[in-house]
Design a protein that fits this description.
single chain, CPAse_ATP-bd, D-amino Acid Aminotransferase, Chain A, domain 1, two-stranded antiparallel ribbon, PCB-like, ATP-binding, globular, 270 residues, 6 helices, ATP binding, Pyruvate carboxylase, alpha+beta
Length: 270
């Protein structure tokens, strides 16, 4: 991949990309697309059923990433105007209606200024669905199971509000706690968890698989250990609650990225 910023760089960049592709993949085909510098990564949560109904549950901001992997997610995004939010969500609904999409999924975009660009559709529940549940009150996992069983979104079993009645309440933040060592280029760590103490309280949610004392952390699976989510009426309150919750977490026996997450949450740009 080559970034070309001026017309003078185009020919050289094209030839280099073509040569590298041929050497790496045995295929010299090249395609050109617009380069978007430092965009926001915004995804819209959508749920559709077999009866032609489809709604969105607004968006999540997944721009805080490390090596193109999401680390911190926020819902709703604090970077979008109401007008831009409406345009993005409407576009997501139009796309999913066009393909007659069924069940939970996300439509992902890059956002730069007032413009946005389609990335992909993820036809599944995302890791960060928790914060959408916290701000909308919709159980996305249960809903997808009922939809798969043939239920209608607006029947009594699911009881999804009409789109005009779906609103968000406050702000939610999710941090992904992983068994990685931030001081060693985020190398995954393994071993037995000798001590585990989690945070808690009103507006704090923990989704943990191997998050318990005595758990064996092996090198054979993803390093995600716990999803820590906080919810409050303002973004500032949710941010403060996340900072406190991260400090209260005690995990011994394996290294985690908690110190890194604390630094991220305290960064002035957050």
């Amino acid at each position: 991949m080559r970034i070309v910023r001026t017309s003078e760089e185009l020919e050289d960049g094209f030839n280099r990309a073509k040569s590298e592709a041929e050497k790496s993949f045995g295929n010299s085909e090249v395609y050109i697309e617009k380069y978007i510098d430092n965009p926001k990564h915004i995804e819209v949560q959508v749920i559709g059923d077999e009866h032609g109904n489809i709604v969105h549950l607004y968006e999540r901001d997944c721009s805080v990433q490390r090596r193109h992997q999401k680390v911190v997610e926020v819902a709703p995004s604090v970077a979008l105007s109401d007008e831009l939010r409406e345009r993005i969500c409407d576009t997501a609904i139009q796309l999913m209606k066009h393909i007659e999409y069924v069940n939970a999924g996300t439509v992902e975009f890059l956002v730069s200024g007032e413009d946005f660009y389609f990335i992909e559709v993820n036809p599944r529940v995302q890791v960060e669905h928790t914060i959408t549940e916290m701000i909308t009150g919709v159980d996305i996992v249960k809903t997808q199971i009922l939809v798969a069983d043939g239920e209608s979104l607006f029947d009594e079993e699911i009881n999804m509000p009409e789109q005009k009645d779906i609103v968000t309440l406050g702000y939610a933040i999710q941090c992904r706690i992983t068994t990685e060592d931030p001081t060693n280029d985020f190398m995954p760590d393994t071993g037995r968890i000798s001590a585990y103490r989690s945070s808690g309280g009103f507006g704090v949610r923990l989704d943990a698989g191997d998050g318990f004392q005595g758990a064996e952390i092996s090198p054979y699976y993803d390093s995600l250990l716990v999803k820590l989510s906080t919810h409050a009426m303002s973004f500032k309150q949710a941010d403060e609650k996340m900072d406190r919750s991260l400090q209260e977490m005690r995990i011994r026996g394996v290294k985690t990225n908690i110190p890194f997450l604390i630094n991220v949450m305290r960064h002035p740009s957050i």
